[in-house]
Design a protein that fits this description.
The complex is a heterodimer of chains A (about 160) and B (about 180). Chain A has about 160 residues and is mainly α. Chain A has helices at about 5-20, 35-40, 60-75, 80-90, 105-135, 140-155. By secondary structure, chain B is α/β, with parallel strands linked by helices. The longest helix of chain B has 24 residues, at about 15-35. Helices cover about 40% and strands about 20% of the residues of chain B.
Chain lengths: ~160, ~180
């Protein structure tokens, strides 16, 4: 059998490549609007105040959503994209600011206030309950005497 | 009738901690609000210093241009009036370029890098432009929208503030010329 020349093999390979028989690399699927909006709804418009990025009609927001789509197509994760935007435009672009620096206060403060409120309420309840017992008049010695006598008589009857 | 004596009441520990944290939080909040208060810059006051890395990779610092007239323009690729104004800015920049007494700096406000590059390329803008990362420069200049332009005198003080776009080269040229005449 005659050996196939190298040029022939190369030609066959190029032909197969051209007609797409040999996949060269997996094509990244184009991220859908839903994919983009899933991230965008957790971000805010940089221009209008308090408008989520997914519903904002401005050109700036449209550009930002395109940027998210590009990053997703490049294989970036949601966390990486959010981190990129926070790094570039500031933490205020994220609906949930990352836990760093003074941002911790936003999470800790409500917890502390609730703890304090519960503590105050419990101590208030305790104080309210306690005086009812503490302020009961201590039976006088004469009352004790009658009680003792009553108990003795009851014992005798038994 | 006897009643028990009550001991002096002590504040709960949680209350004290919460009170301290609340005080800190409110202090920071008011501090931040007073800092961000939209009091615009005044003519004659020193221009806030800033630096950025331009889209060409060059580090640009305002302090390096002391002794020159500096035109700082805030823009964004999504801003249509900015694009119209950019042509005038570039024209004026080209006029003063040989004299080396005037510097133009473009500060790109909340923009995506790809769109910003397209914008600069499309409009043939040749003076240094860079992103305003975390909007720190626009915050220092109390920028309320784009375009806004700040003309800084050679002594580093604010000489002119233009809110909105320039609609011709005349107004900006007059501003710059008036600063170059002063010895």
């Amino acid at each position: 059998m005659k050996p196939i020349p190298f040029l022939k093999i190369l030609l066959i390979f190029i032909t197969l490549l051209t007609i797409g028989v040999i996949p060269v690399a997996a094509q990244q699927p184009v991220p859908s609007d839903d994919d983009v909006n899933a991230i965008a709804r957790e971000m805010f418009c940089p221009v209008c105040e308090n408008t989520p990025l997914d519903v904002c009609p401005t050109k700036a927001c449209s550009d930002w959503r395109e940027e998210i789509r590009d990053k997703l197509a490049q294989g970036w994760s949601e966390a990486e994209i959010k981190s990129y935007f926070a790094e570039r435009y500031g933490d205020q672009t994220l609906a949930q600011p990352p836990l760093r620096g003074l941002n911790w206060l936003l999470f800790l403060l409500p917890l502390c206030v609730i703890t304090a409120a519960v503590t105050i309420y419990v101590s208030f309840l305790r104080r309210k309950m306690a005086p009812q017992v503490q302020n009961q008049p201590v039976p006088s010695s004469s009352e004790n005497h009658y009680v003792d006598r009553l108990e003795q008589e009851l014992k005798h009857r038994d | 009738m006897n009643t028990q004596n009550t001991a002096p009441r002590r504040l709960p520990f949680g209350f004290i901690i919460a009170f301290i944290l609340l005080a800190i939080f409110l202090g920071l909040l008011f501090g931040s609000l007073s800092k961000n208060k939209n009091t615009s810059l005044k003519i004659g006051q020193p221009a806030p210093d800033f630096s950025f890395t331009s889209y060409d990779g060059e580090t640009v610092s305002l302090a390096d241009f002391r002794g020159k007239v500096v035109v700082v323009n805030f823009w964004a690729s999504w801003c249509q009036p900015c694009a119209e104004e950019a042509l005038y800015l570039e024209k004026v920049w080209q006029k003063y370029l040989p004299g080396e007494q005037v510097v133009f700096l473009g500060v790109d406000y909340v923009d995506t890098e790809s769109k910003a590059r397209q914008y600069l390329q499309g409009l043939h803008i040749s003076y240094p432009n860079g992103p305003d990362l975390k909007s720190s420069i626009s915050r220092d200049y109390h920028v309320s929208g784009v375009p806004e332009t700040y003309v800084i005198a050679p002594d580093g003080r604010l000489a002119f503030i233009k809110i909105g776009p320039f609609t011709s080269t005349v107004e900006l040229t007059e501003m710059i010329d008036s600063l170059l005449i002063i010895p």
